[in-house]
Amino acid sequence: MFTGIIEHLGTVDSLKTNDEGGRLKIHAPTVTNHLEVSKSIAVNGCCLTVVEVDHEHFSADLSGETLRKTSVGEWKTGTRVNLE
User: Fold this and answer.
1) Quick one: which of 61, 67, 65, 75 has its CA closest to 13?
2) pTM attached to this predicted model
3) Could you point out which of 22, 47, 56, 76 has its C-alpha 20 to 30 Å from the C-alpha of 68?
4) For residue 6, what are the contacts with CB-CB under 8 A and spacing of at least 6?
């Protein structure tokens, strides 16, 4: 369960979108050792599922609905995000 308490910060490394959704890659070395594929993480309050993880980054797929209902699609490389 997400508590609403910001535990870490990350930085948008890349965001690729299309009409059907997209993929977000976050630089977050303070959390990647706790993540694995299929785990959930809140990014600026938006619950996302991890689809890739390495030592310093994680990626999540984005649905078209997520892009329409949140500000995720407006983020640029370098945007700082709250992680929980």
Assistant:
1) 75
2) 0.91
3) 56
4) 82, 83, 84
CA–centroid distance for 70 within its chain: 12
Alpha carbons 22 and 58: distance in angstroms, whole number: 14
36, two tokens: 């694995």
Confidence band of 73 (pLDDT split at 50, 70, 90):
very high
**Residue written as token pair 């490394």:** 13
Instruction: Give the CATH number of domain 8-83; options: 2.40.30.20, 3.40.50.300, 2.40.420.20, 3.50.50.60.
Output: 2.40.30.20
Q: What is the pLDDT of residue 7?
A: 80
> How many CB atoms within 10 Å of residue 2?
11
